[in-house]
Amino acid sequence: MNLPSVRSLAEQARRARTKLALSSDAARRRLLEAIAEALCASAPTILAANEDDLIAASSRGMSEAMLDRSRLDRRRLDGVVEDLRRVAKLPDPLAAQEAVRVLPNGLRIHRRRVPLGVIGVIYEARPNVTVDVAGLALRSGNAVILRGGSETLATNRALIAAIHEGLRGEGFEAALVAFVDRSDRESVEELISLEGLVDLLIPRGGESLQRLCRERSRIPVLTGGIGICHLYVHPSADLERALAVIENAKTQRPTVCNALDTLLVDRMVSAGFLPRVVERLGALGVRFRADPQAQELLGGIPGVEPAGPGDFDREWLSLVLGLKVVDGIDEALAHIARHGSGHSDGILAEDREAIARFLAEVDSAAVYANASTRFTDGGEFGLGAEVAVSTERIHARGPVGLEGLTTYKWVVEGEYHCRR
Amino acid sequence: MNLPSVRSLAEQARRARTKLALSSDAARRRLLEAIAEALCASAPTILAANEDDLIAASSRGMSEAMLDRSRLDRRRLDGVVEDLRRVAKLPDPLAAQEAVRVLPNGLRIHRRRVPLGVIGVIYEARPNVTVDVAGLALRSGNAVILRGGSETLATNRALIAAIHEGLRGEGFEAALVAFVDRSDRESVEELISLEGLVDLLIPRGGESLQRLCRERSRIPVLTGGIGICHLYVHPSADLERALAVIENAKTQRPTVCNALDTLLVDRMVSAGFLPRVVERLGALGVRFRADPQAQELLGGIPGVEPAGPGDFDREWLSLVLGLKVVDGIDEALAHIARHGSGHSDGILAEDREAIARFLAEVDSAAVYANASTRFTDGGEFGLGAEVAVSTERIHARGPVGLEGLTTYKWVVEGEYHCRR
Questions:
Q1: ipTM, 2 decimals?
Q2: What predicted TM-score, i.e. pTM, was given to this entire model?
């Protein structure tokens, strides 16, 4: 089979995007509904393709955790379709008119939200990403080029076929959701070289992929998904309830970026509280890496070992938790500033002043008072879904939904105005 | 003299920025007022330093145009100080609380505007940039590293001394406005390598500087300032008034990025209108590059020559104007999509439908109906000043003022909320 080059996919996507960008809110809603229906109608094909992917991956020795990430069963597919319908119902991201005003010279000026253009997304495993990203991109008037992982190539082909059916049924070109039907490295290198054809790159993968994009591509890159997340237990915290939040942040889904990595406990309460943390989370299989002061309080307890160099700079993505005793909020803030990744960090406290200070001074994408870091998520934040959790400081930060896929243009209307 | 490395300047700026970021609106306003006063008090020193710069530059054979760009006389310095005071009075860019809501589970969530961090700006000549950029950065809570051109090194030193006096007088560290007191290429290369210390690079210079930043730096880059600007004369335009706008866009200041480069005239009116354009603008010294159809109408008129290959892809920055006859709005839109740089483009028309279509379909940072492209400017748009005119699609587009120097963080407050 002679596959089209990534460049020709991008050129087609670019040409197709204008009609979508100028389409009405209702047309884009209908488009997502049509895709949702096509996905439902194709469910047997999609699930069978996923079964094939899993059998092949399993025979290649893929880990159970990775197999689980790659699995698309009926329940998960229903969830994906439900998310798509939720995004369809969100308010039109292109409706906003901002900064509307009349200048002293009579010029009428406003900013109009417009789609970014063509988005390139590189991702692995999780087939829900294919539909989530296509849905958010189309709802906000963008074309998208998807380059998924080899593990779910058959699944993605089946999903894309349904998406294309939805697009054609509503009179749009299939080229709006381009799929790079290859899993070689060259296809990634070609995609990231398409400056002028691709407006934004979103690498959803490990650090090496993110570095490749940042170092080799001249296209703006939105990276994220790497979180070294902290909770700080202030002496004023309700310790019983704090324990529940810590358990949730660490164990509810330990393999994701917003799971807890390091627990900072104020010295004022550490002697009583740390053993309770270890007892409760240890029973759930969590192992601990303790700094010298925590080690003094916990030494000898099974599952607790001294933190090694670099342990407080690690995203664990597993049932391991760093423990550190801090001398008040100052040391907690300093530790987070030095070791955090700017993703999600929280304070557990009743003291309003400590809370206000933590929320103001911690410079992360999401800062929490008395809640689990696990909430950093487009769905949880009410964005419908997310294309990524950005740890960038420019353009979009934290969960990126529809708004992050738009830009604006200045619209200026006059009566043959000249500048003096 | 042993100058500090650019890295150590950035480290100091990074440490100093937290206090500024957390300071009140009133404190940041007072800071800008104090700098304005220091600049006034140091005016004789600053103007003398500029005199030295100009004498040195002139003896090196600098062109009169460049000398004029580098000149800071009393009137211009007063203008710079006035702009700074205007920025001081703008609403606090860090006050906004966006997307405030209570989620169904009771979590209280909002987005809080925060400074970007440390901004690196590389620029040439125009000494007003030093004060404009420092003022916008400080007003929005950012530290800044300035690397100006060699032509105005003495002027910049004097300006920076006054800025530092203002900072110290208000209890802030001088390190917040770091000045790279070198004009070698190595200092640029060091600055753009400081990933993790510098949050955003703004290269305000030619294409080669912009390319250097984009290719060599892993820091996000905000580029702009290259404008291939169009006006399209629709048959419904009031041709007499259109003529005045065209004259203004081309001749009011031909050396800048928002000046007109190509005039597209609808075939319906071209025979009568093009000769009038050539007569009126030709009298002001404008020369013309005509496409074959315009050439047919204008051939033989002095100052008109056939457009060469690539002439419609050039930013003229001088009294040259491309002329092209187009077959209706479709051809005008297609020409702009193909040849424009996404900076500033306008339509001259009375027909509401044509205007609406042009404003919707032209995908540029600023789109105009019946006004000169020369208005694309932070001051003219009411932003007080600008750090750049962005032709990026991400983060900030068009004139970038205070808002473009901020990002946001998500603030989430709960009652020991756990995710299900």
A1: 0.95
A2: 0.94
